[in-house]
Every structure is written in structure tokens, then in C-alpha cells.
Design brief:
alpha/beta, eight-stranded mixed beta sheet, 7 helices
């Protein structure tokens, strides 16, 4: 039978990482490091509707492929809905703590997030002004009609939980999204990219999981986006917030 990209969720685990690095005292505050010959580091945040049901194993395959392409990766776990301390704002707090830890490893960081992980990556990038590749990201939870949103945010849906509401971003961003995504609609990334003046890479006819499946042809768009931002020194970018002050 032909490969279905969603199989990435149930594929056998990838080979072990080079090192598991703990970034906090909680059991789920760790990440798997895979080293390449590079001084830039991609901090990878898995998706899964912010639920404890899903973990970092499935994005490990992407991290292996990125490592083989010369990109060092840190595949980060974080507390999710269903984990003690997970959900909102605990999941974002974990991501920010992981980013702070990653900065002790290198100054050249690129945040990479898929789906709900893309949501957290965009929020973290807005807080700390880091380059970000957001893949099939939830860019505005208030307009994503999915039962995971009230589980994360309750009925309030605060604006600080919306990447779209945090613009201007203040750092470079590339959004990669399948035009046939039935999980997180393409319009989520389209509206964010238009409002942010960010680069949008539409994957014609692709669904939700092709961009993170190294066996698909679409995943190379993610690889190339990470390569693009990893090659840019942070000093070349100007924070719009600071430039207006």
C-alpha cells in the first residue's frame, strides 16, 4: 500500500539521539539532541493538539533527516494538556524555558514547530525574537474550529495565546503549510503571513503530515526553510518594536 503521511505518528521510534538534555526539574522537561557539523541549532516542537497523547517520538524522524542534512536539532518535550502543569500557560512556559537553556548551547537558534508546536514556536519567537519555521501552525486559536482549543484555553481564549495577536513578530519567519490540510486549515498560515509580512510556502495538495514526514516529497520544503534561517546571523535582523522606540 502507498505511504500515508499520517503513519509518521505510529511509525517505530527513530534511532536514539546523541544526548538527552534536561532543561528543568519536571519529568517532561527534556529534549533529544542530534548533532551535525553546524553551529546553528533547530529547536523542534512537536504537535498533537497540545495533548499528552502525543509526544516527541514522531518528530524524531524529522530530526534524524535534518541531522543527516547537516542541521543540528534539539527535539523538545514539554508538558501538555493532561500532564500536571501542562496546558495554558504551562506548555508555553516550558518552551520558553527550553529556549533559554538552548541559548547556553549556541546563539544561533531557529525555532521549528508543527501544528500545535507551531503555535508555541510562534508565541515563543514573539517573546524572545528568534527566527521561526512554523509548519501547519495554529496561528490564531480563536478561529480554529477544533475541540482541542477549549481544552487548552477554556472559554476565555486570551489574546496572548494567539500568535496573530502578538504581531509584529520582530524576527524572521517562514510558514510552510499544505493547501489541502484538513486538520489545521491553510488559511491559518495565510492570514498570519499576510499580517506579519512573513514568507509563506504553500504546499499544493499536501495535507497536515506530509511536511514532517521525511518519506514524503514535501518535507524538503521544511528542511530548506530551516537551512535558510539557520544561515542568517541574528545581527542581520532588526526588531521592529525596537526600531520604533
Amino acid at each position: 500500500m502507498p505511504r500515508v503521511a499520517a503513519d509518521i505518528l505510529t511509525d517505530p521510534p527513530p534511532p536514539p539521539a546523541d544526548e538527552r538534555i534536561v532543561y528543568g526539574p519536571e519529568p517532561l522537561q527534556f529534549g533529544d539532541l542530534r548533532r551535525a557539523d553546524s553551529d546553528a541549532l533547530a529547536v523542534v516542537l512537536h504537535g498533537g493538539a497540545w495533548k499528552a497523547t502525543y509526544n516527541l517520538i514522531h518528530t524524531g524522524h524529522l530530526c534524524v533527516a535534518l541531522r543527516d542534512a547537516g542541521i543540528t536539532t534539539w527535539n523538545v518535550e514539554y508538558r501538555r494538556v493532561g500532564d500536571p502543569g501542562g496546558g495554558w500557560p504551562g506548555s508555553l512556559e516550558d518552551v520558553l524555558r527550553a529556549v533559554e537553556h538552548a541559548r547556553a548551547l549556541t546563539e544561533r537558534l531557529v525555532l521549528v514547530g508543527h501544528s500545535a508546536g507551531g503555535h508555541l514556536a510562534l508565541l515563543a519567537a514573539a517573546r524572545v525574537q528568534l527566527a521561526v519555521v512554523a509548519v501547519a501552525a495554529v496561528c490564531d486559536p480563536a478561529t480554529w474550529d477544533h475541540p482541542a482549543v477549549p481544552l487548552l484555553l477554556g472559554d476565555a481564549r486570551p489574546p496572548e495565546a494567539s500568535p496573530l495577536a502578538q504581531l509584529p513578530l520582530g524576527s524572521p519567519a517562514i510558514l510552510v503549510h499544505g493547501t489541502a490540510d484538513e486538520v489545521v486549515p491553510f488559511d491559518q498560515s495565510k492570514r498570519y503571513a499576510e499580517a506579519a509580512g512573513a514568507e509563506l510556502v504553500p504546499l499544493e495538495g499536501a495535507g497536515h503530515f506530509e511536511p514532517i514526514d521525511p518519506q514524503s516529497r514535501e518535507w524538503t520544503a521544511v528542511r530548506d526553510a530551516i537551512r535558510t534561517l539557520a544561515a542568517v546571523r541574528p545581527s542581520r535582523w532588526v526588531n521592529p518594536r525596537e526600531s520604533r522606540s
